[in-house]
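Continued from yesterday's entry.
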Amino acid sequence: MKRVLLVSQLAPPSGLIAARRIAALTKYLSRQGLELTVLTSRLSGEGPIEGAAEVVRTPDLLASGLNWRRRQLEVLSEGAPGDYGRPSRLQSLLVPDPAAVSWLPFALPRARRLVREREYDVVLTTSPPQSAHLVGAALARRGLPWIAELRDGWTFQPPRPDWPLAPLRALDRRLERTLRGASAVVGVTGPIAADLQERLGVPAHVITNGVDPEELPGGSGPPLDPARHSFVHTGRVEVTGASLGPLLAALRSLGPESAVEVVFAGPLSSDEAAELGSEDLSGLVRVAGNLDRPTTLALQRAADTLLLVTEGARRTSVATGKLFEYLAADKPILVLGDETEAARIVAETGTGAATSATDPAAIAAALTRAAEGNGFQPDTAALAQYVWPALSARYAELIESVGR
């Protein structure tokens, strides 16, 4: 039995979407016959993780009273009330991320201790935060095979603004080059993996996010207007870098007589809350609040069409975890951002359509077409590759190939 040390700052029971990939990996890799130890942060909470032989939770300054971001992280979790704020200015100076200061000083020595105490075949580090990979790099220098997984690009189309100073940008690129010490890298989308292989020369594999066929909604979501075609958007918007402006301009051009409504469920910034509460959007936009996960899943399944807002051309590599929740809901999907990986996956699986993320006229036309019906015909064979039992089998093969 291969023994894997999985290193991730975020893990269950955290309500953040990054933790759900860790939940799926531990659950389904254990069913592939792997023994997993999860090294994570107390920021994620306490308790066991399904499939993990052991869970080691280290201190983290972000889980302490010193954390200036703790309230924001709580709001970004499902079910937590309140608005989230913009990232602090201090975050723009901490390279590669705040976890390098808050968690790495605790995680790295604990990882070294774990490796001294027992024999692992592979260490698997997953980001963001990118500083998790510094744990893998340190263990690789001791001879342990290392798989580095990137859910977002590091310097390639990152989800954050560029560093404000040239020395910070240079340091970030230098830290990214530590990935060259990995036995293999995994990108959750094709563009991320291709960039890593081309620039850094490391063997790169694509293992996307996926659908957990055992996860079911609970209860019911907020009622939708039966007289309108309900587009439902769940999760965050502005904090990912996407903009609601073009979508709201499209809705204003359609007017309330269009019999369309867009329902937003998830955490909002104060600016977004003000935008969506504008009087001229009355009847076109509804805010359902930040819902817990079972209610969110139920709302997705009640929608007429599911809406995914991306940054479009600025981040073509994006295919968020939310997209795969949408695939499981068995409802048509409309992606704003026709250049993105999300758009490609929706086209490949026959689960919807895509349009511009920035052109209000194109968005208005796409909303109208979706409301009139778009011949929803999912391709079950294509969808099968995005289910966690299949994805975990591929991951287990990769671990077997690099493990000692």
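--- second protein ---
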Amino acid sequence: MRPRPESTTYSAFETLYLSFYSRDLYQDIARNRKGLCLPYLLLLLMFYWTPEMMNMHQAVSEFIADEAPQYIEQVPVITISRGEASVKEPVPYTIMDKKKNSPVAIIDTSGQVTSLNNTPALVLLTRTHLIVRKDEKETRSLPLSDLGDITITQKLIYNWLEMFNNLFVVVLFPFVLLISFVFHGIQAILLALLGGSFSKYFDVNLDFRALIRISVVAFTPAILLEAVHAALNIQYPYSTFISFLIAAGYLFYAVGCNSKKSLPPISRV
């Protein structure tokens, strides 16, 4: 039986659990692996973001089912034609949060209300513009001429929400995965810089690429812990800070595994 090449001693799925304790794994990563283990980081993050996106989808579905109707049922028929909005109800027309007895949206095609100043409402529809509050100090104005001619009914809004609920995970998942990948990549670089100090402490000669590979794998226990919290839908306070500390601890262990005292030949076949 021919032994497997040392550079492929451990598969990605073996690495997922061996990263918790295996000296041989961290020796193999430092001595035999190539590259920066970035495909492995992407796989690892998918384990976290899959249940997390399912939680987000559930939260959106519950909002649409439980909370959205109280607002949608107050929306009048809105006709937008040639860049101008009109409604049959008397204006200003206010859509309320009935639980808080607070305005959420204002429709005024008469020109009496022209901004969201001095109101807690989040949305204002004027005759020619849709104004949305971004935060306490900033709003965004969208000309209705950009929307084309359309008649907005309650049924149409429900259809929009259903479409959004069905598609937002598919659209959002690659985006958040990419952002998380870049963020953890930066953290791996910071850990690798810290690993240089660990190397001096253990008197280990590891180049920067090897330290990045080890740093990526050292994130495994921390990210899998986050994934468990996400799968159980349990809040994990300060997860970023705690995960970095856990990864730093595993990096210290991993660098120590590559010291001369801990470096027997890898003989796995």
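Residues 1-7 have pLDDT under 50 and may be disordered. The chain is about 55% helix and 15% strand. Will compare against the first tomorrow.
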